[in-house]
Amino acid sequence: MTNESIKILLVDDEPDILEFMEYNLKKEGYNVLLAKNGAEAVEIAKREIPQLIILDIMMPEMDGIEACRRIRETKELEHVLIAFLTARNEEYSQLAGFDVGADDYISKPIKPRILTSRIKALLRRTSFNQETPAVQIGNMRIDRDSYLVYKNDEPISFPRKEFELLSLLTSKPGRVFTREDILSRVWGSEIVVGDRTIDVHIRKIREKLGDDVIKTIKGIGYKFDI
Amino acid sequence: MTNESIKILLVDDEPDILEFMEYNLKKEGYNVLLAKNGAEAVEIAKREIPQLIILDIMMPEMDGIEACRRIRETKELEHVLIAFLTARNEEYSQLAGFDVGADDYISKPIKPRILTSRIKALLRRTSFNQETPAVQIGNMRIDRDSYLVYKNDEPISFPRKEFELLSLLTSKPGRVFTREDILSRVWGSEIVVGDRTIDVHIRKIREKLGDDVIKTIKGIGYKFDI
DNA sequence: GCCAATATTAACAAATTATTAAGACGCAGT
DNA sequence: ACTGCGTCTTAATAATTTGTTAATATTGGC
Question: Mean pLDDT for each consecutive 10-residue tract of chain B (226 residues)?
Fold first, then answer.
């Protein structure tokens, strides 16, 4: 079988990783395209319509999640396979990834054989119908598919960061997430924003859901609690 | 500070790089160990069992790959996190590094913020998902995940220092902690506060939980006892 | 009863978070 | 490319909580 006609778009800000994956996929005969950030990825994807896009989650400019959203918004790319690259054990990334319509995730460190077999399995797959179940907590429901939160069946829309922050906090109700947890999971380990940014997002969520859903543990962080 | 107990072993033959990383990690409160080649690294690692080892790939004597292999062969170090330092164009080093069991790589040039946030992300992988089980003592339960203490199922919130102090005392019920123990473990060895500060915190805890949970051993310290 | 150690209280200082508004940025539609 | 819109971030300031100290009272062992 020949893979020549199968286009795979690789997206990562680390040239080393890009090169490494490119090498291994070309060896398998795939038609490999490269992008070094989310914006470029979206652009190339629209032009080339690849079968599969492998996206690093953590990237400057536009991260993988956002890029994925943009890609999914494009009609021609609605059913393109998208796999995320994540660091080992970063379950939240996986979660967020699936939220925006990822089909699979591949965890770093990447090993050649695993990479190729994973890709083959993905390409073999015909239907993609894994709906992320909506999460129900108290009188609110968080629907990861539509990026909507319902409070008493009333839909409230959240911008991306707010949604991801709320999503993180509600992933383990009652548990305190430190500012560091929040920063690295919502913003990524390499993107550095000030601490006040978190406060502001918390405030916006509180404005929409009420002051009492998110509790402040001074000196530690925040937690979602019903 | 909580990072004090986290040992990080830095391995590089370039004294400048070593010093640079040491400076940045010490600033974060980590317990930093240094080695200038692979052989030394293996030796120190076996003795100190650090949580994380950052290895330069290119080194005289014994290179990073070989050192990594030796480290992984040691049972006690099997699950230690290992990150490689790579230069931009060492594209194959990744492959080799991951094959011998590396967890991540950090590419040069090293930027302080990226270094530290990367390290935090790495360390979180091992520590995040293991939930600290709540401790039950008598009619009270101490839940580190939610920063709450329950007395007869009734939640009582504690500010950080009080919580940490109570947490320390309850870590070994019945055992007496000297004022020195308390100071160094709750306040850290560098920050110096007066002895009365401890008394005040003890008092605040007693106000919330009742006078009898913490006993004073005059001239020695305090103990938690039901 | 004496004395050093601890308790207690309230006032002060430091640290952390809340709030608000303004600017930056990207995107969509024109 | 221009404009308008929504989102994200920051800066500045206010509000609040937490931590520390100092001063005074009390305790418990000798």
Answer: 76 91 83 91 92 85 82 84 74 54 73 73 58 78 90 92 94 91 85 89 95 92 90
CA of B199 to C1' of D21 (A): 12
**What b/e readout covers A33-64, taking b as 16+ CB neighbours within 10 angstroms?**
bbbbbbebbbebbeeeebbbbbbbbbbeebbb
Task: Enumerate the residues of chain A whose CB falls inside 8 A of the CB of residue B121.
Answer: 87, 184, 189
Q: How far is B88 from chain A (nearest CA, A)?
A: 7
All structural domains of chain B, each given as residue ranges with its CATH number in brackets, are 2-127 (3.40.50.2300), 135-224 (1.10.10.10)
- Residues of B at the A interface (Cβ-Cβ below 8 Å)? 86, 88, 90-91, 94-95, 97-99, 102-105, 107, 113-114, 117-118, 120-122, 124-125, 128-129, 131, 145-147, 157, 159-160
Taking Cα atoms as reference points, which of B122, B191, B135, B131 lies closest to residue B163?
B135
Quote the pLDDT of residue A55. Answer: 84
Measure CA of the first residue to CA of the last residue in chain B; give whole Å. Answer: 29
Q: Are A57 and A15 in contact (CB under 8 A)?
A: no
Token match 């009652």: residue?
Answer: A174
Give me the pLDDT at residue B82, please.
87
- Nearest of B207, B212, B201, B137 to residue B163 by alpha carbon: B201
B95 vs A87: CB contact, 8 Å cut-off?
Answer: no
> What is the DSSP pairing of strand A104-108 with strand A81-87?
parallel
**Largest distance between two CA atoms of chain A:** 60
Which ranges of chain A have pLDDT less than 70? Answer: 1-5, 58-63, 75-76, 78-79, 86-103, 105, 107-109, 111-114, 121, 124-134, 145, 188-191
Q: Do A190 and B117 touch (CB under 8 A)?
A: yes
Q: Which residue of B has its CA nearest to A88?
A: B125
The Cα–Cα gap between B198 and B179 comes to: 8
The one-letter amino acid code at B31 reads: N
